[in-house]
């Protein structure tokens, strides 16, 4: 009975994995070949065509400036996903190197590092990025900067914890004793031991980052018009929500689907790796 | 000049992390002075918590003693710069108790055994392969095993692999930190025989840390009994085990002998 349940769970997680990964794959393809998939120019303003319903020319209709919603959604994939991946990549570069450095060095370095983390983590992170973008001024580069500068602490702390648990294992001690240099120990023994957990962490959290980028853009602090972005599309459609709810619905739905897909993918990945470990 | 000399080693650990008041301390090693001659196997026995493993870590340079000095080949191990320490360490290797966690599960046996060789000797890959295969044969394993992973081996085989890594650089001294305690009795004897044979072949010295007097008796030439961070009793001749007087020694002795009197 338990075996059947286990099988079911495995299959379910497999199914989830299939569905979520195909959504993610589809979105990435969409982002990479946006100009091929989009039926119209996403930034072409045509006031005469404004707020139209779905038609053969505009499959999802047009917004208040007469721009094709479907094209804007497709080009929004490019900005949203691209920015999220960029933010995650930069963040991981900082937090992996600092986390490993602090965790492996230990002692005073680690203590000071942890106190800096404590200070930064005392502020709500979204509010802090909001304030930072406010100071730096709106814009894509500043948005990325603000998110990376605020959120790297969380990952650095988690990675430091992983390093601490690996560092005390005998094979690391044995490597130290047989004369392996620090950098080689880190690259050969510590990094491979934590990398799968880090990958899970990345996929579990990238949904949150997409959400944060969209939120900041919704507030007008991120990507600037006329560039298409989902959060900004929701913001643009605010005044017309009563009469044209679909304007808000489409970008909202797509954010929802992408974030859910990434979260489920992360979870399925975690399960799969756990099963492997056992 | 003796190979290893410990002079009044003291190590205290701080417990907890309180900002206020004095922290609690544990004296793991109080004052240990001992010498180890070249080619000798010194057994250090004691109950758990007697500080013998801490002593091993200090000798390996993994922990710094609060007081006292460790002289290895006449040089102070803890006052060295990293580079000189590396040269000194070449002659000082270790075999841990837990053979499973002492090998990186993601590397092949060949990579594991070649690690010390890569750090100290510039070998071509064919020379390295030859050496690794030679080492595997030396510890009684199949040369083909170098392409397999640790999860495919049993505890006794893994301990052989650990030993192969430890002797790869032909060190002077190997610390055996409970090296056979986790293995079953039959495998223990095999490993101890292997260690004895390697000692003869390469003129190794061992520092055999264990709580198991029976295993120590099998291989050691001399014996030091530790209790609460101090060496409480010495024995220069293993034939006179029954002469041990300290209550801890008696306790350790009685935990071995009654089962099969005369078995040793």
UniProtKB/TrEMBL annotation, chain A:
Topological type in the membrane: Multi-pass membrane protein
Superkingdom, natural source: Bacteria
Transmembrane segments: 16-38, 81-104, 116-135, 141-159, 198-223, 247-266
CDD domains tied to this protein: TM_PBP2
Keyword terms, alphabetized: Cell membrane, Membrane, Transmembrane, Transmembrane helix, Transport
Domain ABC transmembrane type-1: 81-266
Subcellular location per the Swiss-Prot or TrEMBL entry: Cell membrane
Pfam families to which the protein is assigned, alphabetical: BPD_transp_1 (PF00528), OppC_N (PF12911)
SUPFAM superfamilies: MetI-like
Entry-linked InterPro entries: ABC_transport_permease, BP-dependent_transpt_permease, MetI-like, MetI-like_sf, OppC_N
NCBIfam families: Opp2C
Family: Belongs to the binding-protein-dependent transport system permease family. OppBC subfamily.
UniProt protein name: ABC transporter permease subunit
Organism from which the protein derives: Viridibacillus soli
Taxon lineage: Bacteria, Bacillati, Bacillota, Bacilli, Bacillales
UniProtKB/TrEMBL annotation, chain B:
Gene3D superfamilies: P-loop containing nucleotide triphosphate hydrolases (3.40.50.300)
GO molecular function (one): ATP binding
InterPro entries: AAA+_ATPase, ABC_transp_ATP-bind, ABC_transporter-like_ATP-bd, ABC_transporter-like_CS, Nickel_NikE, P-loop_NTPase
Domain ABC transporter: 4-253
TM region(s), chain numbering: none
The keyword Ion transport belongs to this UniProt entry's keyword annotation: yes
Keyword Nucleotide-binding: yes
Domain of life: Bacteria
Keywords, comma-separated and alphabetical: ATP-binding, Ion transport, Nickel, Nickel transport, Nucleotide-binding, Transport
Residue ranges that the Swiss-Prot or TrEMBL entry lists as coiled coil: none
Protein's name in the database: Nickel import ATP-binding protein NikE
Organism whose genome encodes this protein: Viridibacillus soli
